[in-house]
């Protein structure tokens, strides 16, 4: 096969070619590495490229296959990993100067699972520094662009993972989602992106931003690839105190079942507060057309009011910043993080720590740390942090009431399509509004998935979000797969109409 025929295959197709011995892992890996070399300078998807390590693992997988030894289903398929996730022997920077050149001595649990399944790690992807952002414009190292239109953002904070898959620079990828950081970039780049139930995927070895909200998950060009990667990532982990010892079943099987079963009889609720004001006309039109397809196919559609969702943006900013300020306290140049010295004056522990944090952290990280410290201070705790926790409880109550009436909640994933680079960079409130539809699921720990449901403004992708009840991840994939079939969105054909990376 010629190179562009290889890198345009999805992960499942690549595994089938490998298992049929029509392609070798080395051939596939070289195709992606060549694509990276020629195209990633335009996109900025990767912060580290693992060329030697990827080829070495590809050769080992090929040799094992030649010997006829049993291999996992996806062995030899390449993958990219967000640079917030610890990888032994590969630098992990969280896109921050304060972790520049840090090479972890251990793997995150999800990386251990990836290696057990013999996937080939192409490299580490770009992100907003410490995952603090919705556009991947806050990376300390390089700008990341949307392959659909190189003048637009890929979303964030998992923008590098999204753009690596959207630009055919990896077949699938791992992102992390604290308030929508998998689903929103998936929507902006025409991908499927899923946030598992909180605790369904181990957080051990993932650099924490907000520990009660963070969750890793898959990004792919279709639901089956996302489900396959979800199954690989998911496992009970004693090293993570929030890990759930629960049998979630097979997400891949759920996708196969969903394509057969369809949507007839499924009770689906449109979130009233997430389907009108604040959403772009094209996004709403695509959403309503998709709802009509669900209804025509036999789904039972209800309007569900979740009145306390209106508090989610404000509560999220306080709780996320509070937890982030606590988690990032350790990076002081003495215990953790790269050490920076003051430009002048005496060097003391205090001046060194001040210089380290001032030079090591970017502007958005410093802003959120200050907000978090203020919210946790004695004079503000009840008025800010306490009130935010009460709002979170009210939002949980909305979910509880909703799932008594329906099995799923739906909304547009993001209020707009991908916006222009720099357009929202100096307007933090506008930037924060990008997560208005995605934050509630993080508060409740519910699984949620975004899938593309057409093109909206400026011929750019729009996303459709499905939220299921806690631990109902397989049910979520079942509906997503059935809906994907109804929508009929073809990534390759739609992408070929774009003006971005070819």
What does this entry look like structurally?
The chain has 502 residues and is an alpha/beta fold. It has two domains: 3-269 and 406-495, Amidase signature (AS) enzymes; 310-391, no CATH class. Helix content is 41%, strand content 12%. The protein has an eleven-stranded mixed beta sheet. α3 packs antiparallel against α4 and α11 (312-327) packs across α14 (381-402). The longest helix has 22 residues, at 381-402.
Tag the structure with descriptive keywords:
Amidase signature (AS) enzymes, alpha/beta, 12% strand, 41% helix, 2 domains
How many structural domains can be distinguished in the coordinates? 2
Q: What oligomeric state do the depicted chains represent?
A: single chain
Instruction: Kindly state the percentage of residues in helix.
Output: 40-55%
Shape call = globular
Q: What is the CATH level 1 assignment of the largest domain?
A: Alpha Beta
Question: Average pLDDT across residues?
Answer: 96
What is the CATH-assigned architecture of the largest domain?
Alpha-Beta Complex
Summarize the structure.
This protein is α/β, with parallel strands linked by helices and 502 residues long.
């Amino acid at each position: 096969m010629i190179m562009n025929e290889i890198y345009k295959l999805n992960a499942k197709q690549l595994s089938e070619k490998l298992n049929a011995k029509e392609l070798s892992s080395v051939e596939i890996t070289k195709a992606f590495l060549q694509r990276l070399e020629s195209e990633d300078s335009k996109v900025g998807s990767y912060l580290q490229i693992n060329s030697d390590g990827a080829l070495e693992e590809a050769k080992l997988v090929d040799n094992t296959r030649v010997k006829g030894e049993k291999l996992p289903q996806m062995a030899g398929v390449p993958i990219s990993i967000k640079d917030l996730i610890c990888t032994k022997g590969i630098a992990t920077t969280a896109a921050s100067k304060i972790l520049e050149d840090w090479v972890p001595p251990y793997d995150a649990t999800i990386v251990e699972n990836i290696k057990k399944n013999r996937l080939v790690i192409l490299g580490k992807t770009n992100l907003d520094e410490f995952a603090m952002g919705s556009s991947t414009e806050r990376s300390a190292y390089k700008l990341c662009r949307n392959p659909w239109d190189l003048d637009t953002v890929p979303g964030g904070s998992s923008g590098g993972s999204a753009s690596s898959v959207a630009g055919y620079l990896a077949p699938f990828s791992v992102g992390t989602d604290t308030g929508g950081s998998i689903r929103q970039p998936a929507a902006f780049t025409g991908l499927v992106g899923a946030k598992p139930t909180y605790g369904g995927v181990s957080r051990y070895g993932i650099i924490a931003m907000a520990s009660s909200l963070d969750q890793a998950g898959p990004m792919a060009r279709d639901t089956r690839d996302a489900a396959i990667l979800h199954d690989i990532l998911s496992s009970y982990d004693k090293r993570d105190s929030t890990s759930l010892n629960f049998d979630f079943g097979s997400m891949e099987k759920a996708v196969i079942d969903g394509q057969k079963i369809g949507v007839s009889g499924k009770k689906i609720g449109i979130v009233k507060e997430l389907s009108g004001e604040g959403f772009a006309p094209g996004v709403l039109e695509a959403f309503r057309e998709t709802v009509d397809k669900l209804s025509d196919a036999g789904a039972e559609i209800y309007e569900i009011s979740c009145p306390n969702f209106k508090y989610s943006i404000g509560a999220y900013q306080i709780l996320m910043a509070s937890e982030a300020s606590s988690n990032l306290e350790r990076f002081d140049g003495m215990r953790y993080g790269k050490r920076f010295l003051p430009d002048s004056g005496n060097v003391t522990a205090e001046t060194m720590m001040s210089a380290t944090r001032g030079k090591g952290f970017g502007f958005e990280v410093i802003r959120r740390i200050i907000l978090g410290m203020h919210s946790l201070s004695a004079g503000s705790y009840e008025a800010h942090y306490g009130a935010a926790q009460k709002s979170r409880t009210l939002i949980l109550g909305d979910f509880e009431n909703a799932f008594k009436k329906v099995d799923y909640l739906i909304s547009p994933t993001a209020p707009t399509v991908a916006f222009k680079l720099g357009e929202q960079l100096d307007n933090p409130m506008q930037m924060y509004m990008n997560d208005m539809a995605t934050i509630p699921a993080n508060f409740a720990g519910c699984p949620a998935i975004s899938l593309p449901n057409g093109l909206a403004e400026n011929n750019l992708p729009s996303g459709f979000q499905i939220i299921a009840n806690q631990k109902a991840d397989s049910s979520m994939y079942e509906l997503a797969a059935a809906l994907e079939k109804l929508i009929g969105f073809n990534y390759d054909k739609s992408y070929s109409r774009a003006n971005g990376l070819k």
